[in-house]
Design a protein that fits this description.
Elements (H helix, E strand, L loop, with lengths): L12 H10 L8 H14 L3 E5 L2 H11 L7 E5 L4 H8 L4 E5 L21 E4 L11 H11 L2 E5 L7 E2 L2 E2 L6 E5 L12 E5 L5 H8 L5 H5 L19 H11 L2 H20 L2 H4 L1 E2 L14 E5 L2 H13 L27 H9 E4 L7 H11 L3
Parallel strand pairs: 2-3, 2-4, 4-5, 5-8
Antiparallel strand pairs: 1-9, 6-7, 8-9, 10-11, 11-12
Helix pairs in contact: 1-8, 2-8, 3-4, 3-6, 9-13
Amino acid sequence: MIPFNKPFLIGSELKYIEDAVLSGKISGNGIFTQKCQAFFEKEYGFKKALLTTSCTDALEMCAILANIKEGDEVIVPSYTFVSTAIAFIRQGAKVIFADSYEDNPNIDANKIEALITSKTKAIVPVHYAGIACDMDKIMQLAEKYNLVVIEDAAQAIDSFYKGKPLGSIGHMAAFSFHETKNIIAGEGGMLAINDSKYCERAEIIWEKGTNRSRFFRGEVDKYGWVDTGSSFLPSEIIAAFLWAQIENLQKIQTKRKELWEYYYEKLNSLKDELNIQLPALPEYATNNGHIFFIVFSNIEDRTNAIKRLKNNGVLAVFHYISLHSSPYYNDKYSGAPLPNTDKFTDCLLRLPMFYELSFSQIDTIVESLKVK
């Protein structure tokens, strides 16, 4: 069986975990946490990077930092993971779902302004498959209406918009290091801050609402409870694992992008025969090799393709169920139809993508897609 995903181990993860354990500090915000955060700040220009136990936690920190409260509205795409919405719903906000582009699962930036009201406080673009949203348009709207932009960059490590790293453009951003991502820590995430006014409070929220980090730096003589927050920071064991991956980021990225390009080359010549759409890469975006997806014309064709692949020992999976039509939100949704979102829910299929995938395995996958 060719799995959909296989976590890739560099080889130094266990050594660094041992180093973390032997250091005598494994509770978090130690040497490996600081090394990881310093790397992201230097490499991608974030004003502050804070590791978290998940991307969900990072999004929840964003919601707190943006002072989202009951009665506020937050615009999010419907084609995304539940964490993108629930982080703001837990603060009491109403999520306003936006449609995707016709040829791209990302939020359609041209449809956002019509959703903005006097209650709107934030826009949360999701860079699906590591492919950038139209950030110029989104940031212009944010400036015009005084809104906070929170990039859900869960899938977008080392991907760019007009040369700018994704996650560095909005006021803040959330990343994931889940085992399905390009670089991993099992579970793990990161909050990236780009507006300096959020930096100090972010650190307090990260440390359970205390100014503990300032105390450890010697900036105050004692620490206490000064704000809301939670236990968002991960252990040094998670950070040590992640550091091994970070050290090999470009090696991982090079291979994943080669695999992505090979998929594209093989399927591009067959797209008419298979009646599929391939990923649309806007001219302003780069590809980070996170997901290779294809889009069928209807759910029946996708279902049949999944069966053909499975019969040939290949596990391929669909992705998000439209949040506006989910069991939790269906009876709460009163907005307009979102036809493009529903199309991707019914028709998008993710093909196996992981570091150790071989070109010959991709040949098998492509051959298995053909209707015999």
